[in-house]
Every structure is written in structure tokens, then in C-alpha cells.
Amino acid sequence: MKPPRSLQGRLLALVLGLVALVWMVAAAMTWIDVRHELDELLDSHLAQAASLLVVRQSGRVDDDDQHIDAPTLHRYAPKVAFQVFQDGQLILHSANAPALPMIEAGEPFRTGFKTVQIDGTAWRVFAAYGAKSDMRVHVGEQMSSRSEILWAALRSMLWPMLVALPLLALAVWWAVYRGVAPLRRLGVALAERAPHALHPVVIADAPSEMQPMLAALNGLLERIAGLMESERRFTADAAHELRTPIAAIRAQAQVALGETDAGVRRHALEATLEGCDRVIRLVEQLLTLSRLEAGAAPPVARLDLAALARGVVSELALQAIQRQQSIEVDAPDACPVQADATLAAVLVRNLVDNAIRYSPAAATVKVTVSRQKNHVRLKIEDSGPGLSAADLQRVGERFFRVIGSGQAGSGLGWSIVKRIAAVHQAPVRIDRSAVLGGLAVEVDWPAQVSAAGADK
């Protein structure tokens, strides 16, 4: 598998590619501009030389053929030639001028420039005509001299750029290397961290581009720390709460094993089964609480809270009858909300079960579901002893139980109720019942939740 390219390598290749592209574009533009200006300059020299010859040869020259060996004043002088014609005859020319006319007399233009090929050599020629119509002057320059001058000009300009390009590459590499240094420090910091280290990652002088990544990473570490703490609490809670019922089950099993009396043995086995049921219920509550504290958002759907409340009451009615209690349900035909059906059922069941178990014989338990202006309210009331002001403040603490209630339990029911209500954004209020005198618990499902359910 091909290893991924480093961020530093990608940045370096991108920056160097762009620099090289800009450099080539600048060089091309320089070439075009220098060539244009050079042509303009040398063309003006040709025109000026032709004008001087026209003035010099204004009078008739008697010699039929004259040539001038011009002194070599410049290294490009041998590449410049001229011809002077009068009455169609070549009367004056430079020593290096070609034998044929540079521009044929019959061509359809008079004074001006033209590039021609003579004996395989390219010439740039300026043709000028004197005051007399029979006077014609050609001044030409080999194109190779222009290329030599152009290359000389470009060499003087390009060699500093060629020297500067490696230096620029080195400078870019250094800049990129320094620029990605915080990423290297982050990698080193993460590699050196112990597996259990979940404290925030701090990188000195981290650039602004890294801040969102660091914030997200530290947020993830914080959530992982919360999950691990939740798992540690779950393990401790399970070990703490399961120790007593398991010990009781073991004791009852030992009694049943060693007892010869059938009635006592049966009683011990029934107590063993009750202990097993208690352990199962405790494990279910611990698992529910662990899932809620893990922060996993429950999948919600349309749920009829009134129908759910009636179903839960029907399941627990036998328990109330066995305790000689009356249980009432007051719910309209439909009260739709958006909720997780399983969690909502756990919430209602815990509240109704608490009301039944902590109320005395002949007590009344009332479950009401009503539509309010901005929410749907679930209310559970009982005629039991209720709770003191101090105990009301502690309701919802893990493993908190009212001393002297005479009821077995884990103290997790209220914690589960509050966590389920919290994930559904449903506030819970606990107070004394104004009607029955015992405890009253109200859970208000937000208006937007019920509205969303009603729209479906």
C-alpha cells in the first residue's frame, strides 16, 4: 500500500510548482517584451542609417559600381549591410552586402521594413527612396545578430533568476518545515501519551488552523474520560449492589441444601427465587443507567403516552391489589409525544412501582396524563407518607434510599427516571400531593416534542 504523502511534502510541491510556473510566465513575458523593444530599437537604427544615406546620395553618383569597406566599429558591424540604387543600377554598397537587391524594385511597397531570405540568411531590410524617384536605398541587418543580442540580454537577466530559484526552493522548504512544526509536535505529544492519559492536549503556539482540531480532539478525550468514569462507576455500583443479594441467595441456598423439613426447604427456595428476581431487576436497572450515562441519544418515534401509561398500570395492577391498594388511571384517548418507547416505559414503570411499594395498604395511587398548553404532563400521585424536605433534596442520588421504609430496593430507580427524563428534555418535579397527601411526581414533555409527534 502506497504511504500517504506528508502535509509538508504536499505544501512544498504545491508552493514550488506555483513558484516555477510564475517564474516561467515571467520569463516568457520578459522574452516577448525584450524582443519587441529590441526590434523597435534596431529598426530605428536601420531607418536612421537609410535616411543618412538618402541625404548623402541626393546627387547623382557617376561611378557605376562602388562599394565601401566600413571600419569595424562594433562586433555586430559585419552583420549590417546597405545597397544604393540609382536608375535601377547598384551604385554603392557595403562590402558584405549581397549581390542581389535585398528588395526587388517591382514589389508593391515603397518606404518600409521587410524580412527577407537571401542565400539562406534571414535579413531585416529597410527600403527608403530619396527625393529623386530614381534613388533607392536598402539597409539590412542579419536576423541572427538580433537573436544574439536578445540572448545576451536574456542571459544577463535570467542567470540571477536561475541562481535565485534553488535559494527560493530552500527558503520555501524552510518556511514549510517551520510552518508544519506544530503538527509534528502534536504527533510527538500523542505518541508519547500513556494509554490512560485523557487530559487535554496543549500545543504551544498552535496556529489558528489547528485550534478547531485541538478543540475537537480535547472534546473527544473529555467524552472518553466521561465514558470511562461511567464504566468505572458502573463496575463499582454493580459490585456494591450485587454483593448483598448474592450473599442472601447463597445463604438461602445453603439453608435449602441442609434442611430436611420440606416446608422450611420450600420457603428457603422461594426466598432464593425472590433473591434471583431482585438480582435480575438490579442488573437491568444498572444496565439501563449505564446506557443513559454513556450519553447515547435514544432513537425517538411517535408514542402515545396515554396508552403507554394505561398499559403500565394494567401490568402493575395485580401488585397493587395484592397490597390492598386502589390504582386509578385518568388519560385521554391519545397524547402523542416523540420518545423512545422502551425508555418511556421504564420511566413510567419505575414511578408507578415506587408509588405502590412505598404506600401502605389501602392507599390510593393515581396516574394522570393530560394535555397542557405547552406540554404533555404525566403525573403520579399516592396517599402514602411522602418524603421529608431533606429526603426530597436527595431524591435522584445513586443508591439513596429512605431509611425505615421497609422496602427492598437498590436506590437506582430515581436516578434512572431523572436520566430518562433528561435525555427527552422533560423536566421532573417532586412535591407533596395536594389531593392524596402523599408524593406527587410530574414529568412534562416539551411542547415541541408533542407537536412533532402530532404532526406525523
Descriptive notes:
- The chain is α+β, with helices and mostly antiparallel strands and 456 residues long.
- The chain folds into three domains: 7-166, no CATH class; 208-291, Signal transduction histidine kinase, dimerisation/phosphotransfer (DHp) domain (Helix Hairpins, Orthogonal Bundle); 299-455, 2-Layer Sandwich (Heat Shock Protein 90).
- The protein contains ten helices and 13 strands.
- The protein has helices spanning 7-56, 143-179, 181-192, 211-258, 262-293, 305-322, 341-357, 389-394, 413-423, 447-455; strands at 66-68, 80-86, 89-94, 112-118, 121-129, 135-142, 301-304, 326-330, 336-339, 364-371, 375-382, 428-432, 439-446.
- A six-stranded mixed beta sheet has the order 1-3-2-6-5-4. Strands 8-10-11-13-12 form a five-stranded mixed beta sheet. A two-stranded antiparallel ribbon has the order 7-9.
- Strand 5 (121-129) and strand 6 form a beta hairpin.
- Helix 4 runs antiparallel to helix 5, helix 5 (262-293) packs parallel to helix 9 and helix 6 packs parallel to helix 7.
- 23% of the residues are buried.
